[in-house]
Each structure stands twice: as C-alpha cells, then as structure tokens.
User: Fold this.
Amino acid sequence: MGFARNALGAFLLLVLILSVAHGDPLVPALCIFGDSVVDAGNNNNLATLVKANFPPYGRDFVTHRPTGRFCNGKLATDFTAEYLGFTSYPPPYLSQEAQGKNLLQGANFASASSGYYDRTAQLYRAISLTQQVEYYKEYQAKVVRLVGKARAHDIFSGGIHLLSAGSSDFVQNYYINPLLNRAYSADQFSDLLMKSYTTFVQNLYGLGVRKIGVTTLPPTGCLPAAITLFSSGSNQCVARLNQDAINFNSKLNITSQVLQNKLPGLKLVVFDIYQPLLNLITKPTDNGFFESRKACCGTGTIETSLLCNARSVGTCSNASQYVFWDGFHPSESANQLLAGSLLEQGINLIG
Assistant:
C-alpha cells in the first residue's frame, strides 16, 4: 500500500511538473500566513529580535545571501511555489518587492514567532495572525485596483492560501510561560488555538477565499532546541511535547472537517507535517541524511535567530546532510522532501 501510494504521488508530481513546464502556474496566486517556518523576510522590517537576515542564514539560497528565511536555503513553501509553476516566490508583504504586478501572484504575510494565539506574536513583536489578515485585506484592495473586481475575485477564489502556525504558541510561549501553563492544560490551550484557527478560516472565507491549506504541528518534542530545553538531559525526543502535538493535530483535523461542512465551496486541506518530518528524524539515513538530532548551525542544540550567526562555532559545512538547519527549523534538503509530501496531500487544492 505504501509503495502504491508513493508511486501514485511520484506520478502526480511528474504530471504537475510537465504541465507547468509549458505555461502558466497551476493556480493564479499563492498566499502564505503563519510563523518562521514560512516567513520569507517580513520580520526584517520589524523591531523584533527574531530575525534571520544575516549569515549564515541564506548561504545556500539561490542568491547565496540571507533573505530573512529561517533556513540555509529554500523554505518548503518556496519549493511549493516552484512545483505550482511560479517563476518567483510570493514577496514578503512588508518588503519593497510587494508592489505592482508582483502582487498578482500572491504575497507572504508570515512572521517568525507568530501563532494562533495573538499574544505569542506580541511577546516577540511579531505580526499576529489577526494583523496578517488585516494586511491581506489591504493586499486585496491593491489587487482590485490593479486588475478590477472580476479578475481579482478569480485570483482570490482560485489562489491557494497556506497557513503554518502553532509551534511558536507551544515552544516559545506555553511551555515557558507559567502564566499560561498554570492557567490552562495543554488540552485547554489547544482549544483556545482552535478558536483562533476557526476565526482565521471564516475571515478568509468571508473575503472570497476558497482554497486553504493548513499544516499540522511537527513533532515539536524532536526539535533540537526542544530536546535541549525540555528533555532533562536525556537527549531523546520529548514524548510529552510530541503527544501534545498529536492531540492538537487531531483537533485541527476535526475542526477543519466542521468548517469544510459548514462553508459551501470551501476546499480546506490539512497537511500532515508530523509524520513526514518524524520519518526524517527517526530514519535519517533512509532519506539521505547523516544527522537528525543536532542542527547544522553552531553546536546544533539550541541556536536559532541571533544565536545562529556568522561567528557561531561548529557550524557544519554541508547542511544537506542535516535534517535541521538551526534549533527549530529544517534544512533546505528537508524542506524539499516535506514540500513533495505537501504536494501529494494537496492535489485537490489545485483542481
């Protein structure tokens, strides 16, 4: 069964790649919301410490320059844009590139350290999900001015809107914030996040959006920084954190099904990131990796953002052998594999 599914996935991928090789992208636009896993540079323009616009970030990117992506190279969403046939990536909404015709193929509203829970973003001076939707409304008005209402409507309803959130809410807020973890159990906190997620989907739907993809939480207990912070020195994935992620993902699937049933014409796909990433972590050599516990940057145990810098001692020379680039984020090589999995799961968003 696994082989048959992989063969089917490879076949679909081939069909997609061949069809985009000869013309326009498969969808009119790609819009991206969420956190550092998909932020392409919005935080560069904020008064926040959570940035990645300095070396060694970006060293393997096409330009070999840091862009604000929390990676050595491309994000999973960059590969997704390529697979869909776009010749450039959705520009960060707060950047100089996000103007004129560039906006017609979508935009990126994501902000590192943002999440479903608006106070997570506020803690780190990031752009909250609520504010990302406000920026999206501004973006829509600009597109309408560029091409008129009818064509703009086709772009919004036909474009794919991707959301990646939740990891920062847990790892950068709930687990380290006694005000939160004394007030709510992890289960109750998940329920709070589901309310925000529901509001987000309903708001986009009200703005004419009909194709939404949302990623699950990854195995948060296996992120190098999470092992360093929460494993009590065992050097193993933290089972409690992974269980919280599994419970959250179950709620995300149920909530998404409810929304899908309630909102006519909505295509809402939940992308499972948990299992594909766990496979890379637990069987690195099967997937062409050498190291899955330590990240490439610095000691590979905790460094991210400002701690992962040009002077970080021990940074690896070949990030393609590592599942993780820094303490929280996958390497470009891992992102490429994850994007392939996303594409297989999201076929019905493309139709």
In short: The radius of gyration is 19 Å. Strands lie at 30-34, 160-164, 211-215, 267-271.
